[in-house]
From TrEMBL:
Protein name: N-acetyllactosamine synthase
Catalytic activity: N-acetyl-D-glucosamine + UDP-alpha-D-galactose = beta-D-galactosyl-(1->4)-N-acetyl-D-glucosamine + UDP + H(+)
A molecular function (GO) term: N-acetyllactosamine synthase activity
Gene3D superfamilies for this protein: Spore Coat Polysaccharide Biosynthesis Protein SpsA, Chain A
Xref: Pfam families: Glyco_transf_7C, Glyco_transf_7N
Subcellular location as annotated: Golgi apparatus membrane
Species of the source: Latimeria chalumnae
Length: 260
C-alpha cells in the first residue's frame, strides 16, 4: 500500500547502508529465500545531486527488496561541468549494466523521484512503460498525454528496437519527448498504468542547481522521424573514467563529450 515519504534531516548514507545489510557490493540484491525471474537494473543519471541520491536509496532499496526482485542500482555520473545530457547517460547506463548481468528490465530513473506506493512494481511489461504517471509536482496528473519524463521501464529488446535514446539533447528538455516519438515510430503502444496508485512518485525538488535549458530542443524534435535510426545506441560514444562498487550502488563516471 501507500508509503509515507518523509525526508529525515539527519539521515546519513552510513545509516542507509546499515538498514540494508543484505545488499551486495555494487548495490545488487538477490532475494535470499526464493528465485526471482525478474532481473531489474535501475539506471540513474547523476551529477551533483548527492542529497537526492541518499533519500532515493533510503526508500528504493527496501522497496525493491519487498518486491523480491533481483536488482542492481547503477549511478551514471557525468564527469566535468559541461552541459548535462540525461538521455546519453541513460544510453551509457544501459550498455554498461548489460555488460554485467543479463537484466530483463531496465528502469530509467530520475534521482529525485521516490515511489509513494508499493504497488509501483518495478518489472517490465509487454509494452514500454511510463512508470511515473502521477507525481506530486504535477498534482498527480500528467502535464500532457505523451509525457514520458521521470521514470520509464523497458525490456532490452524494446529499448534496442527503438535504437535507445537520443544522444544529442544537451541540457534540460526535449529528450523525453523524443523518446516518446521513437516509441511511436517503433510501433510500440505506450503502457501507462490506469490505477494511479500503481505509479505515483514524490518529487524531491529543492536545492539543486537548474539544468541549462536546451534551446534547440524543438528543432531536434521536429527531425526525430528522420534521425532516430542514426542517433542512439548505434552512435553512442563515451569513455568510462572509473567504475566503483559502493555498498549501495555501482558508480560509473563517464566522459560523454560536450555539445561544443
Ligand atoms: C524533468 C523530467 C525528466 C526530464 C527533464 C527534461 C520529471 C520528474 N522529470 O526533470 O525526466 O524529462 O524534465 O530534461 O518530470 N540531473 C542531475 N544533475 C543535474 C541535472 C540533472 O543529476 O545537474 C539528473 C537527475 O537524475 C534529475 C534528472 O537528471 O532527476 C532530471 O533533471 P532535473 O531534475 O533538473 O529536471 P526536471 O525535474 O525538470
Amino acid at each position: 500500500g501507500p508509503i509515507h515519504v518523509t525526508f529525515p534531516a539527519k539521515l546519513t548514507m552510513e545509516e542507509v547502508e546499515r538498514k540494508n545489510p543484505l545488499v551486495l557490493e555494487g548495490g545488487k540484491y538477490r532475494p535470499p529465500d526464493c528465485q526471482s525471474t525478474h532481473w531489474t537494473a535501475v539506471i540513474i543519471p547523476h551529477r551533483s545531486r548527492e542529497i537526492h541520491l541518499k533519500y532515493l536509496l533510503y526508500y528504493l532499496h527496501p522497496f525493491l527488496q519487498r518486491q523480491q526482485l533481483n536488482y542492481g542500482i547503477y549511478i551514471i555520473h557525468q564527469a566535468g561541468d559541461y552541459t548535462f545530457n540525461r538521455a546519453k547517460l541513460l544510453n551509457v547506463g544501459f550498455k554498461e549494466a548489460m555488460k554485467e548481468e543479463d537484466w530483463n528490465c531496465m528502469f530509467f530513473h530520475d534521482v529525485d523521484l521516490i515511489p509513494e506506493d508499493d504497488r509501483n512494481v518495478y518489472t517490465c511489461d509487454r509494452y514500454p512503460k511510463h512508470a511515473s504517471i502521477a507525481m506530486d509536482k504535477f498534482r498527480y496528473k500528467l502535464p500532457y498525454k505523451t509525457y514520458f519524463g521521470g521514470v520509464s521501464a523497458l525490456t532490452p529488446d524494446q529499448y534496442l528496437k527503438m535504437n535507445g535514446f537520443p544522444n544529442t539533447y544537451w541540457g534540460w528538455g526535449g529528450e523525453d519527448d523524443d523518446i516518446a516519438v521513437r516509441l511511436h515510430l517503433s510501433h510500440y503502444v505506450l503502457f501507462k498504468p490506469t490505477h494511479i496508485h500503481n505509479q505515483i512518485q514524490k518529487n524531491l525538488s529543492g536545492t539543486s542547481t537548474r539544468n541549462k535549458l536546451y534551446c534547440y530542443r524543438f528543432n531536434l524534435l521536429a527531425k526525430t522521424r528522420r534521425t532516430w535510426k542514426q542517433d542512439g545506441m548505434n552512435s553512442l560514444e563515451y569513455r568510462v573514467l572509473s567504475k566503483e562498487y559502493h555498498r549501495l550502488f555501482t558508480n560509473i563516471t563517464v566522459d560523454i563529450g560536450t555539445d561544443k
